[in-house]
Amino acid sequence: MSATRPDPAEVQSGTSAASGRGRGGSRWRSLWAGRPFRAGTPGSPVLRLFVRLVRRPLVPAVRLWRRNIQLRVVAATLLISLAVVLALGVVVIAQVSRGLLEAKEQAAQSQAAGGFAVAQEKANAPATVDGPDATDNKVGRDASTWMNSLVKQLASGGQTAFEVVALGAGTGEQTLPGTQGVKGARASGNVDPTASVPVKLRRAVNHATGAFKTFSEIRYTAGAGDKAPEPALVVGKRLTDINGDPYDLYYLFPLTQEEESLNLIKVTIVTAGLFVVVLLCGIAWLVVRQVVTPVRMAAGIAERLSAGRLQERMKVTGEDDIARLGEAFNKMAQNLQLKIQQLEELSRMQRRFVSDVSHELRTPLTTVRMAADVIHDARVDFDPITARSAELLAGQLDRFESLLSDLLEISRFDAGAAALEAEPIDLRDVVRRVIDGAEPLAEHKGTRIRVLGDTQPVIAEADSRRVERVLRNLVVNAVEHGEGRDVVVRLASAGGAVAVAVRDYGVGLKPGEATRVFNRFWRADPARARTTGGTGLGLSIAVEDARLHGGWLQAWGEPGGGSQFRLTLPRTADEPLRGSPIPLEPEDSRANRARAAAEAAGRSADRPAPDPGDRSPIPPRSPVTGALPVPADPTALPGNGARVVARPADQAQQEDRADGR
């Protein structure tokens, strides 16, 4: 028999999905855990491979992030520092850029205003025949020649600080050969006049008076080679030429120097910002390390203390808060060590007392047993009262001997002297011997003991004597508390574990009792008589036997619905348990039956729902051999992993009426 173990991530995801945090969150958690990619799902191998590839690098990173507080603090400092530096850099760059542009605009407007005044002054100057400024004279020269000379003279004063463009009023298209007037486009420095002056600016200059400015690009003609366009500030104004005809004059101020300055500032801010971020991360790392290192030391020492090394202490230096924490931790460890030593000494005294008393009582008990046997054999010659007293004396002596044996066994477990004699055994043989021994009590109670899952061998390395003692205790308790109903013993084997579950349909366990059922001398009903002379130590010894094998002994019960005790053992003595082939809660519990009834009602509305009060003593045979093992967890230890289901009052009344109570 074999079973496939579920992925712990699947079980964890299923538990999270059942917690009710929303259908959307459960769907994403199930997707992350791989639940939709089980066998039978279309495309599941590809999707499962994709999920594994995505999860593989993320799981170690997430684990490191969750466990390393120093990493989280440094990462938070890095993110905050980047945000602050980025915000400051944006503000500083914006301010510097605005300042550079404003300064450039003021200088450009001042320079352009002077050029516009000079151009208009030259156009309005009186005509002369000769002189040193013959190039500016109106006599003997047309407007086109004068405009070429004007653009050249105005551009010569810029020394590459600006370029001058003159466009005719209107569209600014080139004039035809032989025409007069300033209708053509003229520019200095191989500037493409029509492409460098935006259309919107030309329209504004043509339809209004005054100077206008805008940002654009200076584009060059083929005569300038492969010179790339440059950002520029363009200032234009409507003027008149020597003939009084209007034309547009534009000053183009390149922003190359401002752009280079802004780039230099950006590089400086980025470099300084990165340096500041790295410096802040380093400072955060050092500061957090000073705080985290003592905490890590305390955590390591606490782990060693929990492992039993009670002499461990923290190294304390200085007088700060961390030093005070270390001193307090050392005082706590010292007091804890003292208390544990006192408790260990008290425990040793108690164990020695129990062991000594148990041994010392054996000699007088043997003498009393011999005398009691003589009296019990001669009871036929006594009067009825004396004969009954002899019978009671013999019965109580039997119980006393059993109590002494149990006390001696408990003392061995407490002293750590219990030895395990493991060998390969077939649990079916052990179960048969236990059932044969419990048959007289079962016949007296009117109980039938049934065995399921015994068709195939159930082999495990275990101590036959101890396993038989555990199962005998479970079966006898089930018969005693089964109220005449059937007792089901189920065996199963899967993976590296074997299990035996004993199910009864008696009084069951009330809420909270499953956590105390393995306590010493605990009784569910103090008024209930022990017909077999139980001592109250049987389940305590049984759970110690299970732990000695490296196994589990767990309990489940519901009021009025019976109980189930499950013994899970590893197949080999040195193999750790990861799950059990038998679920702790039986399939015929109220919760499972109600769930099955709801599913059946959903599949077929015509199918009648099962009676919730029906408690069939023998559940239908289920494929136990194929059951999936549940994952191992710390709650699997006795008491902690038990579950008790409360019974509603109305349902309890219905069951009582159905049973004829």
Quick recap:
It contains 15 helices and 13 strands. With 661 residues, it is an alpha+beta fold.
What topology does this entry show?
Elements: H1 8-18, H2 23-33, H3 44-67, H4 69-124, H5 143-156, E1 163-168, E2 186-187, H6 193-196, H7 199-207, E3 211-218, E4 230-240, E5 246-254, H8 256-306, H9 321-377, H10 384-415, E6 423-426, H11 427-445, E7 449-452, E8 459-462, H12 464-481, E9 487-494, E10 497-504, H13 538-548, E11 552-557, E12 563-570, H14 590-603, E13 643-644, H15 649-658
Parallel strand pairs: 7-9, 11-13
Antiparallel strand pairs: 1-2, 1-5, 3-4, 4-5, 6-8, 9-10, 10-12, 11-12
Please trace the helix and strand order, writing H or E for each element.
Answer: HHHHHEEHHEEEHHHEHEEHEEHEEHEH
Radius of gyration: 49 Å
What best-fitting shape do the alpha-carbon axes yield? elongated
Largest sheet: 6 strands, mixed
The average pLDDT value, as a whole number, equals: 75
- First-to-last CA distance: 43 Å
Strand order across the largest sheet: 7-9-10-12-11-13
- Beta strands, count: 13
Q: Tell me the structural class.
A: alpha+beta
Strand content: 5-15%
Low-confidence stretches: 1-42, 129-140, 171-182, 529-533, 608-661
- Helicity level, as a percent range? 40-55%
**Total number of helices:** 15
